[in-house]
Give the backbone structure.
Amino acid sequence: MAVLDLVTFPNAILRERARRVRNIDKSILRLAHDMVDTMHHYSGVGLAANQVGVLKRVIVVQMPDDEEPRIYINPEIVHREGERMVEEGCLSVPGYLGTIPRSVWIKFRALDSTSKLVRLKADDLLAQALEHEVDHLNGILYLDHLQEHEELRPVETASGNEEAQSESEEATAEVHVG
Ligand code: NI
């Protein structure tokens, strides 16, 4: 298990489409577990393989209430419903947050690490994270969903006051999707 290097904007691999996984073999499982370690290390709620420089359709997600990380292979959003504005960040675009439209709820399917088909309906942060990570596999960044330039802003870092700084880090972690 290992924390992998993160690819950051504007690296071209973030703009490429990842390829379907044909065989969930040891190398894919190792990649997924290293991605989980990397997601934990950077305090994200999700991570896509493009972000560690690998063009394979693998994502990992862990909601604050999840006891175990979720590993999804060849994930697909099969239905989207509604629109809501959300605050979003990306580990590959450090230092910024934006307000973008995401679906109210989605239907999602993928294979898990045992090659079993998983189907689920998701709303709230899980829907947001799944849309964000599947976007990554298609070469799309949350920046592409910004409707106006003003909706992208630098993360404010408090200076001098330690308490304010830790509060601001917590607030940032909540919206840094991955
Ligand atoms: Ni991201």
Summary: The chain has three helices and eight strands. Residues 90-92, 132, 136, 178 surround nickel (II) ion (CB under 6 Å). The domain at 12-175 is CATH 3.90.45.10 (Peptide Deformylase). The mean pLDDT is 91.
